[in-house]
Amino acid sequence: MNTPANTAITEKPVTTIREIGQHEGQSVTIRGWLYNLRESGKLLFPIFRDGSGIIQGVVPKNAVSPEMFESIKNLTQESSVIVTGKVRADKRAPGGYELDVTDAQVLQRVNPDDPYPITPKEHGVDFLMEHRHLWVRSPRQAAVLRIRAEIIKAARDFLDERGFTLTDPPILTPAACEGTTTLFPVDYFDEQAYLTQSGQLYIEATAMALGKVYSFGPTFRAEKSKTRRHLTEFWMVEPEVAYGTLDDLMVLAEEFISFIVARVLERRRPELETIGRDISKLEKIAAPFPRITYDEAVQMLQDAHAKGLIENKFEYGGDFGSPDETYISSQFERPVMVHRYPAAVKAFYMEPDPERPELALCVDVLAPEGYGEIIGGSQRAESYDLLIKRIHEHELPEEAFRWYLDLRKFGSVPHAGFGMGIERAVAWICGLEHVRETIPFARTLHRLYP
Ligand code: 4AD
Ligand code: MG
User: Fold this and answer.
1) How far is the centre of ligand 2, averaged over its atoms, from the C-alpha of 428 (Å)?
2) Tell me, what DSSP letter sits at residue 206?
3) Is residue 4 very low, low, confident or very high in pLDDT (cuts 50, 70, 90)?
4) What does the alpha-carbon distance between residue 254 and residue 337 come to, in Å, rounded to a whole number?
5) Is 374 a pocket residue for ligand 1 (Cβ < 6 Å)?
6) Does the beta carbon of 198 lie inside 6 Å of ligand 1?
7) Each residue of 139-160: pLDDT tens digit?
8) For residue 177, which atom of ligand 1 is closest to its CA?
9) pTM above 0.85, yes or no
10) Which CATH architecture best describes the domain 17-108?
């Protein structure tokens, strides 16, 4: 759609490269940037991008004025340009079309003495992360960001359509949710506050008001770990269900993930192809997902160690590290749901398994192809007495949790919820090595710029 401001830039009716196929044989105008330029004798082959796609233009020397030919010939990478030309179908062209350029209006030519730093040749990841504000223009990065947006929309549509109400928790909080070791402190008018680790505790309150709720927002972990799965700032979607149990939660999680993957396959196939994702792996993702207990998962790891398949000898009772999760998840073609971990390695708020109280009624969903945990969730401790005992055991400040304890005083019910890290989901669905490429501007242990 043409906004008034855009009409001032060009009088011509503009279209996008994505929609250019609807204009075969017609003259169209696109607004974008020069992606690359090849020259071959009396022909120029400028490649343009406009955010929606990429198209190659063809400029024969005798088809345009000498000034126009020179001005296109002098275009530098990422110069901004409004291009008019006739759309021609070409089976060999990447998008199926080429543009016979008749006019090009250059808005800003990038100075050739200070050229665009990211060339189509290879760059190291550190260099690219340092230029992330420009790197997002590359077709691969743009495709990842589109898929990210689709995953977020799918997650919200799924929950909205099932009667969940979005309730936004605060970002500034007085206390820990997931443990005190990864809190970011904030000076709050001389009071100590922290950036939220999870909206969970607050949406437990709104779940008691509205039944089925969810939150979606940024969460923070002052992780000192430098792995390909950890960010210090990441986005989490968290549903919470009053009267929900662990079994209900596992059904919700497998339907949620299946819905999201199906939606991405339906609407973002070209982007998956741009990234080079093996789509057949995603086509296998459908509920039900395999379910194994923590005990069974430990057995798998110990058997694998005995057979010399993995180095680490896993000790029963600990939490899984990234390599353990990688091994477990690589054994399945669908996400695997590992439930009932030892309460000792999990957060304070989890309901114990009535049959084995040393275990928590919790579940981690591990994505296949070695991706590991994308969802963590649990049934929540229901009794006031147990919860206050846990708060003391975890050395958490009772005062800050008074409101949370109220939820167990005034009509306490079984309830359950989970959190899915958007970046972990994007990394898996896109088949990326590292979560730093799944978010426009990643925040990690050593990165706060740009
Ligand atoms: O397992 P976590 O810590 O669970 C919670 O925060 C619960 N309060 C959620 C709930 O029950 N409502 O985190 C949930 C998910 C993980 O499975 C992972 O996908 C993601 O959040 N996550 C991270 N993603 C990127 N970087 C990090 N440092 C992450 N920590 C957790
Ligand atoms: Mg977890």
Assistant:
1) 16
2) H
3) very low
4) 9
5) yes
6) yes
7) 999 999 999 999 999 999 999 9
8) 8
9) yes
10) Beta Barrel (2.40)
